[in-house]
């Protein structure tokens, strides 16, 4: 486990100094004095089998305020794991707790504190981004004034302002991805789960999305992100988990992973490839 309280303190001190605190941290949720806060995500012995096991007795604990990257080769079980966490796929066995809520027993309660951004998000094409965000906010029964303020803020920081009045079907794939992200964030979720959020984004859009996610983490939210862009994981994530064949084969900071891989000073790419190759050799 990490020590989220000390990191939050540092992150918020930094945000305060850089002037971002007042605009971004109205959602500062985790009290520094609250030692009994349950983890953002706790998975125990999760299993899902299709033709063969896709997720195989996976256990994982991710604390509040963490930026966690979930890596793994194609077909490793990342999306399947996250779809079960998001309540879109029923596990064969196991337990999932989201911010202390039993997600399998109380899926609706669990959904209120989390956001899920799939790798191919769906949005309502007939609405423009502002209408879409206000629609989503309405589903969460948000105060309309607050909803419009938050929607305009998200549109601004994600660089969507020039397209705010364009129907979504007229937007590019990258723009639609950013609209979907804004829709997922509008209700101020405590746990934000994203499946390959940067794939297909241009450099400016990727930077906007990374900044938004970092900002949420600085305000106490937890981000879990799958990515094949290893230098993004290396630069952004505090902890990294590696899944292979449905199992968590390693997790920790970059230093911890490099020690496990016997690759002191290696890049995440070198470390990742070594860990996966070792696992494949052990499984053969
Ligand atoms: N709906 C499904 N029906 C049958 N098999 C599935 C289904 N969804 C996933 N699988 C299988 O489960 C395994 C894990 O797939 P998953 O999509 O979770 O991998 P992933 O780690 O997200 O891969 P990628 O990096 O390619 O996105 C794969 O073997 C895949 O073929
Ligand atoms: Mg996937």
Write a brief structural summary.
The chain is of the alpha/beta class and 284 residues long.
Overview of the molecule:
By secondary structure, the chain is of the alpha/beta class. The chain has two domains: 4-30 and 37-113 and 189-283, P-loop containing nucleotide triphosphate hydrolases (Rossmann fold); 126-188. 41% of the residues lie in helices and 20% in strands. The protein has a six-stranded mixed sheet with strand order 6-7-8-3-9-10, with helices on both faces. Strands 2-1-4-5 form a four-stranded antiparallel sheet. The longest helix is centred in the C-terminal third of the chain and has 16 residues, at 203-218. It is globular and about 55 Å long. The two termini are 31 Å apart. The chain binds adenosine-5'-triphosphate and magnesium ion (MG). Adenosine-5'-triphosphate (ATP) is lined by residues 50, 54, 72, 74-80.
Q: What's the SSE pattern?
A: HHEEEHEEHEHHHEHEHEEHH
Count of helical regions: 11
Give the proportion of residues in helices. 40-55%
Low-pLDDT stretches are 1-24
β-strand amount: 15-25%
Radius of gyration: 19 Å
Bound molecules: adenosine-5'-triphosphate, magnesium ion
Instruction: Provide the CATH superfamily of the largest domain.
Output: P-loop containing nucleotide triphosphate hydrolases
How far is the N terminus from the C terminus?
A: 31 Å
List the helices and strands and how they pair.
Elements: H1 4-17, H2 21-24, E1 41-49, E2 53-62, E3 67-71, H3 78-85, E4 93-98, E5 101-102, H4 107-112, E6 114-117, H5 129-139, H6 144-157, H7 173-185, E7 191-195, H8 203-218, E8 222-226, H9 230-236, E9 239-244, E10 247-252, H10 254-261, H11 268-283
Parallel strand pairs: 3-8, 3-9, 6-7, 7-8
Antiparallel strand pairs: 1-2, 1-4, 4-5, 9-10
Bound molecules: adenosine-5'-triphosphate and magnesium ion.
